[in-house]
Every structure is written in structure tokens, then in C-alpha cells.
Amino acid sequence: FLVAAVLNVCYALTSMESSQQANQDKFRKIVIANVSFIVVVLAVLGLLVSANNNGNFTDRDVKTMLLKMVASKNPGVALTKLEELMENNPAVLQSCHGLVHELGHAAFEKYQNITKAMKYQNDLCGSGYMHGVVEKKFSQSKNIGKDMLTICEPENDQSCFHGVGHGLMITTDNNVTRALEYCDTYTTRVAKVGCG
Fold first, then answer.
1. Distances from the Cα of 31 to the Cα of 70, 75, 183, 192, angstroms
2. Cβ atoms of 11 and 3 closer than 8 Å
3. Is-contact 121 133, C-beta < 8 A?
4. Residue 82: C-alpha distances to residues 37, 70, 86, 94 (Å)
5. d(Cα 108, Cα 186) in Å, to the nearest integer?
């Protein structure tokens, strides 16, 4: 299944270059659906690896320890500790993206301020920390459409807009079509591509 999904993504991406604008949305949806499937499969594989680690640690233990560091110190300390753990344990490496999402959630909860939480942003584990911060912000937003227009300022980098896409998926209960409708309200290509 995983190989088929990867091949579908490759086909859709190569086809997108030669198709008309009307078909690009269709291909984008195919790519998103297949990438989502790949992420789920990889997440499940990561959980299986974590479950078979011969009792060295559990994801819950690592997550609890890191969240305590965010609460008592700051997210930077927790991210540094996670980096150390990843070097010595492949199972932690497998779980890192999900773990940094959780750290981002906790950071926003702690500071209740996007700027303060993003102060600790780094690219560790595919920028999952940023994704988590944005997800948590959106989960508390009274006006997502308004918040999403300014959340990535002043840098406006693609990684932040990708985090917006994560946040939109969470707040729309994983409704890809609805999330993409939000993404399409952006006016720049960088924002639209990053979000969608």
C-alpha cells in the first residue's frame, strides 16, 4: 500500500506540471490524500517500533518528561533534550514529529501567545513544534479565517504556512476540502502551497 501511495504521489506531481489549472486542484487533492495515507502508515510504523523497544522507554514516558520541561523551564530545554534522546534511541527518532507537535501545543498553552511560543521554533523533526503551536492557537481561535492571515508574520515562510495547514486540518476535523478552501483564501503562492 505504501509503495502504491508513493507512486500515486509521484504520478500526480509529474502530471500536474503538464495539466491545465482546472486539473491542478484535482491532482493537488490526490497528492494530499496519498501523502496523508503515507503519514498515517509511517506514524503506525513508528508506534510499532516504539512498542517493540524492549522496555528501554515508552513514548508516554518521554512525552511526560518533555512536557514537564516545557512547563517548568521552557520549550527550548525540552527540544534540546529530545535531540539528545533521538541520537541514542531510534524509537524516539521514529516518534519525534508527533512529540514536537505536543511540545508546540504545550508551549502555546503555557504562554497563550503565538510570538512567545514561536520564540523556541526550530526545524527539529520537520518543524513539528511550529505545527503544534499553530494547531493549538487555531483550536482556541474565535475567527480562524482572520487569524490565519497574520499568524505567520513577519517571516511568512512556507514552513509556517505548512503549520497553518496542520492547524486547519485539526480544526476542520480532517476535512481536506474545507481546509483547502481556507488555504485558497491566501493571495500568495508561497502561502497557498505551504498551507495546501
1. 35, 33, 15, 15
2. no
3. yes
4. 26, 12, 6, 12
5. 24
Q: In the block, which residue shows the cell 504562554?
A: 111
User: With bands split at pLDDT 50, 70 and 90, how would you rate the model's confidence at 49?
Assistant: very low
In angstroms, the CA 41 to CA 63 distance is 21
166, 194 contact by CB (below 8 A): no
The rounded percent of the chain whose pLDDT value lies above 70 is 71
Summarize pLDDT for 69-87 with one digit per residue, the tens.
999 999 999 999 999 999 9
Residue 177 one-letter amino acid: T
Structure confidence at residue 115 (pLDDT): 84
Q: Does the model's pTM come out above 0.70?
A: no
Distances (CA, A) of 115 to 68, 134, 153, 180: 21, 11, 10, 25
Interior angle at CA 116, CA 194 and CA 196, nearest 5: 10
Rg (CA), the chain: 18
Position 22, amino acid: A
